[in-house]
Structure formats: C-alpha cells, structure tokens
Amino acid sequence: MGWNELSDVWSMGCIFMELYTGELLFGTHENLEHLALMEKTLGKMPEKFLRESQGKEKEKYIAQDRSGLLRLNWPEGAQSASSERHVRNQLPLADMTLPEHSVFSEFVGYLLTSDKSRRPSAKQALRHRFLSETFHD
d(Cα 63, Cα 88) in Å, to the nearest integer? Predict the structure, then answer.
C-alpha cells in the first residue's frame, strides 16, 4: 500500500477518537483481529481492498463466502475465544460518541475511510464541518 499523507490522515482519525474515549481504537497486536476490529468499527472492508490482497496474507486473512464474495476470515481465523469476544464487544464508530457529538464521529469516520482512494487529503479534511462547528457546554 505504501505510506503517504493519506496514511497520516488515517492515523489522525485514530488519535482523535483515542483522545475522545481514552482508549485505543483498535487495541490489539494480532493482525486478523485488528482487521476484524476495523470492520466492526467502520463497516465491511471494501471489496477492492480484499481483492488486491496478495500471497500469504490473502490466504491467511481472507475467505470466500458461498456466493463467491470475498470477506475477512473472521471469526473462523480467530486465535482465541477472547479474541472473538474482544471484536464482538467493539462498538461501531457512531456509537462511541455522545449523540450531541455525532459531527465529531462523522469527521473521524471521514478520516478513517478504508478505501485510500476515497480518503480525504489533509487539505480536504480541514474543510469538514466539524472544524467550523460551535459547541456549547
């Protein structure tokens, strides 16, 4: 995938939510669990992302369902019951904030767009309405 500004935009989305909640957004050290947490938080992985995976990673992390669509190899590939439980307990992004802070979770979701070709640049992100919103205590 490579590292560029869009990777930093993703990181900022994680950091903003972690500052809000006081918890790691994707708290794990295991790759498949990390992907499953991302999917639980942000929605299904884009088909393009799954299709472009290659080699051992594709074999290990991606499965094909009965209709031929690609999906994460989850929960079948989970390393433990506690890993499955951890992912099951992960909240969707919109549920991690108070209702009155929904514009913040929309902003973070924008930064965490899974498809890198659709993720905003830093300049585009600065135009999001969250950054011009007035909040009252």
Answer: 19
Between 137 and 86, residue with greater pLDDT: 86
Strands (E), the chain: 62-64, 70-72
More confidently predicted of 90 and 47 = 90
Under 8 Å between Cβ of 121 and 20: no
CA dihedral defined by 90, 95, 101, 106, rounded to 10 degrees? 80
Distance CA 109, CA 104 (A): 9
Higher pLDDT among residues 135 and 37, named by residue: 37
Of the candidates 103, 99, 92, which has an alpha carbon nearest to the alpha carbon of residue 43?
92
d(CA 9, CA 47): 22
**pLDDT at residue 123 tops 90:** yes
- Output DSSP code: residue 11: H
- CA-CA distance, 90 to 40, in Å (whole number)? 7
